[in-house]
Amino acid sequence: MTAAHHAPQSLVRRPWAIVLVATLVVALPLIVAAIALRADRWFPVLDLAMTEFRVRDVFTRHTPLIGLPGRIGEYPDQGSHPGPLSFYLLAPTYRVLGRSSWALEVGTIVIHVGAIATALWIGWRRLGWKGVAAVGALLALVVRGYGQLELSQPWNPYLPLVMWVLVLLATWAVLCGDHRMLVVLVVAATFCSQTHVPYLPLGVGMVVLGFGTVVWRLVRGDRADRRPLSSVTWAVGVGIVLWLPPVVDQLTNTPGNLRQLADHFGSPPEAPIGIGQGVRIALRHLDAFSGLGAQLTGTGTFVDDASIAGGAITLVLWLVAAAVAWRIGSRALRSLHLVGAVALVLGVASTARIFGRPWFYLTLWAWGTTCVLVMATAWSALSAFRVWSAQRAGNRGDDDGRPAALAAIGVAALAVVVSVWSAVAFADAHDPEERLSTAVGALSGPTYDAIVEGVGAATGPDGVYIVRWSDAADIGSPGFGLLDELERRGLDVKADEFFHVPVTEYRVRPRAGADAQIHVATGGYVDRWRAVPDAVAVAEYDPRSDAQRAEYAEVRERFVERLHAEGLDELADLVDTNLFGISVDTRLSVADQRDLGRLIELGQPMVVFIAPPPADDDAGAL
Predict the structure, then answer these.
(1) Residue 538: its H or E element
(2) Tens digit of pLDDT for each residue in 264-323?
(3) Which phi and psi (to 5°) does residue 253 adopt?
(4) How many other C-beta atoms can be found within 10 angstroms of the C-beta atom of residue 158?
(5) E strands, 80-217, where?
(6) φ, ψ for residue 400 (rounded to 5)?
(7) What backbone phi and psi angles, to 5 degrees, belong to 300?
(8) What is the mean pLDDT of each run of 10 residues along the chain (622 residues)?
(9) Closest Cα to residue 402, out of 385, 419, 416?
């Protein structure tokens, strides 16, 4: 029986039509989100501003060779994620659509849609229209589970979410004998691994499994068939090309980013969380019951209500399904279970090696793995049903394929329903960090106008400026955002030399080399800057209403009193100048965390000053 058996012959002759339609169905929520996001003006901040800097540099003499800076080594000379492939793939859409912040979001969606189309193509190659239906349902659940905000913003932990599912499916295709998918596996795994370092061990593991399978078959199979060897050669060549930029960086810089990564993860500054906690986290991510329920009801994300018990049940069901597949399943089904098993083991090992706080974004790949395990479990159940029904009819396993066809039709219908449901939700699209984006939007226009008009120390649009900031709550997010927006508008603006890694080496300058300083002050720093001689306030923003300012004062007073009562006097002294620094202190009580979160949520007053370059010598800056 061929892969496309029972499909209309007109469709068999035009598989691209099936894949195209399926892509449009699965990607419908993302397309709707792109259209909805066009209505608002978004101002990237912090990591997203850093991403736009690098995407803007692609195809220039400053084309990036490494990834986004991360919590790797010592700030501000920290290391970065391994490679720049995400910047390269974002750049074409970004440039075609006018280098706007919205173009950056659309570029992100284009990457996800490309991964979806390739995954559906793999489904066709393996199982025909039934494979397209199954993969479509899988991807519809993945898109629904991660949500609009995660899939439309170019943050490096989010960019590989759909691509990781493609890695798993490409590995499955290779195990099924489709050696040409080695190239797809290498490209997808490289994208994931370069973009966010937690994917590196996972991607390497899948690539090793894929290459190992093909090489093993070459050694044991028909050596006269050179086609698998050609696929291996192409995959190796593509991999070498994709990893050239970080290698060039390593060879031309001291110590080089690859060395920094090796040193940081080879000798981590803290002890790993260990296998026990790693298994507990992995089991929560395996809770398909809570995960699917949260998706289909729209009540939360895939780990909001997850439990270890639910994950354990999912694990047991999958193990039973894998045993069934090994007895009666096809080669394709057994291969899918093997891919899921390897991904699960790699995931647990990776999670156990997390050191420090296990931030949520370090294990975001887990929902993709869980969905593949659910797919394998459902397929095993269908296989068992087919065998049972055939035996009951006295046919001993040789049926006409109707149960599989009906199941595929049902799965396709599920994909359509979930995708349309998601599209309705995605129509109410939100930009990332809207609170801070709104602030940057309110500040950037008046600041630009003041610079052009030569207010204070400004010398007009042809002047040379340095952007600095004193931020009480958001680790410089408004400053990075303002720098990004003023650069977008064509001004010669650079950051302080302290931030040479976050903003790139060529976007910094000493204060002595600037005509004027553009300084963003927030929270407790505002009053300090109002007292600085020759500093002129040119833009002001306070997100709080009168009632919210009164609430802020009340929560602040309560929070400070409690910190003193808890013996945390040094933290109480930072309430007006470094709320984020307080937030990472592990000594905070639950009540402290609640009050701190409310202070950050209410926001800070922000003022932009134009002043002589050395004006903040006595004002303080962070």
Answers:
(1) strand 536-541
(2) 998 888 888 899 998 999 898 888 887 666 655 555 455 556 788 988 999 999 999 999
(3) -130, 155
(4) 22
(5) none
(6) -90, 5
(7) 170, -170
(8) 47 78 96 95 96 97 96 86 98 97 97 98 93 94 91 96 97 95 98 96 96 89 72 96 97 93 88 90 87 58 71 94 92 95 94 84 90 93 84 58 77 91 94 94 97 96 96 94 97 95 95 94 94 94 95 96 94 92 89 94 95 76 42
(9) 385
Residue 420, token pair as written in the block:
């349309």
**CA distance linking residue 580 with residue 571, whole number of Å:** 11
Give which of 200, 558, 163, 184 is closest to 347, Cα–Cα.
Answer: 200
Q: On the CB side of 479, how many CA atoms lie within 13 Å of its CA?
A: 26
In the chain, the amino acid numbered 311 is G
Task: With beta carbons less than 8 A apart as the criterion, state whether 26 and 140 touch.
Answer: yes
Structure tokens at 550: 């009164």
Q: What angle, 0 to 180 degrees and rounded to 10, lies between the N-to-C axes of helices 161-175 and 366-392?
A: 40
Cα–Cα distance measured from residue 538 to residue 458, given in angstroms and rounded to the nearest whole number: 11
- CB contact set of 276 (below 8 Å; sequence gap of 6+): none
Q: How far apart are CA 170 and CA 184, in angstroms?
A: 6
If one counts every other C-beta atom within 10 angstroms of the C-beta of residue 114, the result is: 17
Classified as helix, coil or strand, 542 is: coil
Cβ pair 290, 305 in contact under 8 A: yes
Phi-psi region of 132 (alpha: psi -120 to 50; beta: other; left: phi over 0): alpha
pTM beyond 0.90, yes or no: yes
Q: Among 286, 173, 288, 165, which residue's Cα sits nearest to residue 231?
A: 173
3 state SS of 522: strand
Given a contact cutoff of 8 angstroms between Cβ atoms, the answer to whether 444 and 486 are in contact is yes
How far is residue 175 from each of residues 178, 207, 337, measured CA to CA in Å? Answer: 7, 11, 11
Per-residue DSSP letter, 269: S
Which amino acid, 309?
A
Q: What is the pLDDT of residues 177-223, one digit of tens each?
A: 999 999 999 999 999 999 999 999 999 999 999 999 999 988 887 65
